[in-house]
Write a structure and sequence with these properties.
heterodimer; A: mainly beta; 6-stranded mixed β-sheet; globular; B: 4-stranded antiparallel β-sheet
Chain lengths: 113, 113
């Protein structure tokens, strides 16, 4: 069974204080790992997808990296508008579940001015 | 380009009733997936449809069902509602290939009293 564990559950940062969110996963063959951002009362918003170990992607203050067992979302010099819940999800390579995403429970990030 | 549209945004029902939720995917997308989001369990996969066929189903009771129409719009039905069905129901659409990104709607907030 595919499993995704995110840590920490919650993170409070001062504006400008860089940090990283962790996503550990267990999957029988990884097709893709996805990062989403979710604001209160809204659906998840797609950020990145990573397909192979060693791959990195960047968008503004966010950078996602992938190894064979985990992914990190690095946040550089965060601003209050980066406050949200960040969700990690995996898609298996094959099998009956190859069209579904298995999500972690998310990291709630609060950036204090 | 319009995003994924879910209706209604909010619903209040009582135990034992049934409910139907609707999802209109992004134009050109042929796959629609449904997820249930609760504070305790996070996002859990319900089912996925592609070209009017259910390709994958999560571990939910038979009270949860869905269908997809020829225009790719999808509906989800929950019969004999229970208090534990209170949740945010999210719909996501994609082109349907195995490397396709899922884009989410804003969700339908269902409250069962």
């Amino acid at each position: 069974e595919d499993q995704v564990t995110q840590s920490p559950e919650a993170l409070r940062l001062q504006e400008g204080e860089s940090s990283s969110l962790n996503c550990s996963y267990t999957v029988s063959g990884l097709r893709g790992l996805f990062w989403y951002r979710q604001d209160p009362g809204k659906g998840p918003e797609f950020l990145f997808t990573l397909y192979s170990a060693g791959e990195e992607k960047e968008k503004e203050r966010l950078k996602a990296t992938l190894t064979k067992k985990e992914s990190f979302l690095h946040i550089t010099a965060p601003k209050p508008e980066d406050s949200a819940t960040y969700l990690c999800a995996v898609q298996p390579l094959s099998g009956a579940g190859s069209y579904q995403l298995t999500f972690g429970k998310g990291t709630k990030l609060s950036v204090i001015p | 380009k319009a995003g994924v549209t879910q209706t209604p945004r909010y619903l209040i029902k009582t135990r034992g009733q049934q409910v139907t939720l609707s999802c209109s995917p992004i134009s050109g997308h042929r796959s629609v997936s449904w997820y249930q989001q609760t504070p305790g369990q996070g996002l859990q996969f319900l089912f996925e449809y592609f070209s009017e066929t259910q390709r994958n189903k999560g571990n939910f009771p038979g009270r949860f069902s869905g269908r997809q129409f020829s225009n790719s719009r999808s509906e989800m039905n929950v019969s004999t509602l229970e208090l534990g069905d209170s949740a945010l129901y999210l719909c996501a659409s994609s082109f349907g290939g195995k490397k396709n990104i899922q884009y989410f709607g804003a969700g339908t907030r269902l409250s069962v009293l």
